[in-house]
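Morning. Coffee machine broken again, so started the prediction first thing and wrote up yesterday's gels while waiting. Chain of 71 residues, entered below exactly as on the submission form.
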Amino acid sequence: MLQTYKIDAALKGRGRKTLRCASAWVAYEQRDRLVRQGWTVSVLDHAMKPVAVDHLEAAALAESGNAMRGA
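Came back before lunch.
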């Protein structure tokens, strides 16, 4: 994959987590899971620039669409 994403998550009083994801779809799903668990989450792209949630979702949908078409 050309895109990689880094997820930084913090939970008040409990520490931090850093996850690396090779695709936007995985990053989007991991971000949602952590947010549901109460973590404060930020997502960075391969250039270590913040990625807005709506852009991450759009990239994830594009990836899944390409996978469905076999591209």
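The helical segments are 24-36, 53-69. Going to sketch it on the whiteboard this afternoon.
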